[in-house]
Input
Amino acid sequence: MADNPGESASGIQLVEEDDAALNSTINTTPLVDIMLVLLIIFLITVPVVVSAKEVELPEEANKVVETKPENLNIIVDSDGLVFLNTAAATDADLTAEFGRIARIRPDIQPEVHIRGDLLTEYYHVGRIVELAQRSGVLKIGFITKAPPPRS
Output
């Protein structure tokens, strides 16, 4: 037999677990496998997401609007008070004026220009737009400041 208790007859030495060195390295094989699967998924799905229906988008352009005497100018101040040209107006006044405009032929119908104060709540402007649309007014525009010149 063998002289040492850890040796067998064939000369192979058996090592107990307590004597073995600890393997503290991280096994990166599963990590690499997961990353490759994710890469394949992204390579397959990205072309599907990007290739959407082609549409021609409108270009942004600010046109200078010339005020015509027949246009209806509505002003909404920061408190929500509405003025028709320079006189204060109620919803009934606006509805009557919108009704008058709506009876005119669409091709010569005057425009409604809304000038809302910067601090006006959108509700007040939206209420006027709704009154105009319900009355049948076709041309509604918002008057704003010109953008600052580009440098």
Summary: Residues 102 and 137 are 5 Å apart (CA to CA). DSSP finds three helices and five strands in the chain. The chain has a mean pLDDT of 81.
